[in-house]
Structure formats: C-alpha cells, structure tokens
C-alpha cells in the first residue's frame, strides 16, 4: 500500500501526508481500535475496505472457533463465539478463507496500481539544487559543485618512433607477460577467465574482488602502493588470502603502505614495519615490528607503567590498549614525547 502511494504521489511531502492519512484510516476502521459494533452506521463501509479488518477476521475466527474454545457457557453459545460476538466479529468459519483471499486480492490490486502508476505517470524529480532549462525545453538537474581550474606547468611530451611493427609486437609481448606476472602475484591466475559478476550473487567472491582491485592498481606498475584497510568486510580466512597477495607484492621489491583496522596476529606480523599514530597525528612508534612482534613488544614494555603482554595475546590489540588516551591519562604519560626522546627516534 505504501509503495503504491509513493508511486502515485511521487514527492516526499505528498507521499508522507497521504501515507499518514491512509495509515490512520486503516487502523481506525480495522475493527480493533474501534470495534465494528461501536462504529456509526454511516461508517460501516470503512470496516469492509480496510485490509486490517480481514486480517483480524482471519485471525479471530481461526482462533476462537477452534475446539479448545467450544465449551458451552449459556444458550448454546461457546466461549469462543461469545468472545467474537463481544467484538462484533461473530462470522462463520468460512470467513477465514474470505479473509485470506481478500488480503491476497488487496496485495494483487495494490501491486497492479503500483505498476500502472510507474508506467503511466510522469516521474517528478525534486532536488534542493539548481534546475536549468535546456534548449529543447526539457528540465535537467544541475547538481551543486565547486568549479575549479587546473593548470599545467613545464609539460613535456616525448614519443620514440621505432618501427611500428617492432614496437602493436614488443608491447604486446611485454604487456601479456606483465599481466601474467600480476595474475600470479595476486594469485588470480586460476580465475583469469571468470566474469566479475554481481557482488554477493555471482562471479568472484568478496576477497577475489579485493585482490582484483589490487591487481588493477598493480598493472600501472607503481613503485609504492597505498591500501586503505584492504581486509575490511572480510572474514579471517579471506583476509589472510588478501594479505598473502599483498605480501607477494612486497616481495617483488615494491613498497606497500597499509592501514589496517583490528588486525589478527597473523596479519599484523605479516608486516615489516609499523607507524603508530596517536590522536592528533603524532607518532608513537615508527620502526620494525620484528619476528613475532618482538621489536614492538620490547619497545613498549621498556616504558615504565606499561603492563607486560599476556601470553598468546594479540600484540596489535595490546599495543592499542596500553597506548590509549585513557592509559596515558592514568599514568601521566605522553607516548609521543617518549618516542621523540627514544633511541629508536634518533
């Protein structure tokens, strides 16, 4: 019903107004807030056009005409029938099926109305932005933006001109070889002929899509690659596969810079170096992680009042806990100043 109203009125204000009125109508005449016998005679028709009425009829007849309510109380009237009469819902049992088909009919009718409204009503788009009239007298949306000017200085462009044939041949071979190398590095060679597909429905999995994104960047052959949380949205296994591919890239000699949110022990210890910043952007630690995070643990445990890491505890989690703002306040420490006075900083 609400979808039909939205397709009919189209604008937000009109749809909300009509939707609120229709909801009020349906609730008031549904036979629950105002029972059917209490409704004025001239408003009886409202009960029969409210979808909620049929829902109530179906539920109450199904319940109160059941065998467990058949105890006779007075005048050949069962407890169930007495309850139904009290609320003006004393319908025969076959009204259950009338209610079911009436609700199905409402659903079909409203969906048909929705389809007809989408088909025949002109669509209205209203934005709080400029609207410009083009030369063809058709309205078009002009989204607000800030115009910018870009300039270039000392631009130079060189083209080597060897034999063309030797060149659509060398480039083809090199590019194909390079693509093959990228696919092997990112471990996508097994799905090289697959369609990307639709996320969550078909094609590549989420972690394969992550690796494909990395591969697209890698094809540009950069010396440094920046990755912002490449493991976000992945489970532990998928995150490990992505980070293994990232590690393969680093082993080719490229520098990979990653931001990682709540890394597992394995992912954290896959990195060679760590840059840890506190709120405000000041550095708390910048240096090697060490095997099994030994260098990071050794540095922070050497600071007075910092508790030792528990056995098998995630060093990344421990590091964030002992250097938190509350930990600094509790011990009267500034880890950024401690770092600036350390041998590691020098």
TrEMBL record:
Its main location: membrane. Residues 21-305 form the ABC transporter domain. Gene3D superfamilies: P-loop containing nucleotide triphosphate hydrolases (3.40.50.300). One of its GO terms (cellular component) is membrane. Pfam families: ABC2_membrane, ABC2_membrane_7, PDR_assoc. InterPro entries: ABC2_TM, ABC_transporter-like_ATP-bd, ABCG_dom, P-loop_NTPase, PDR_assoc. This is ABC transporter domain-containing protein. It comes from Turnera subulata.
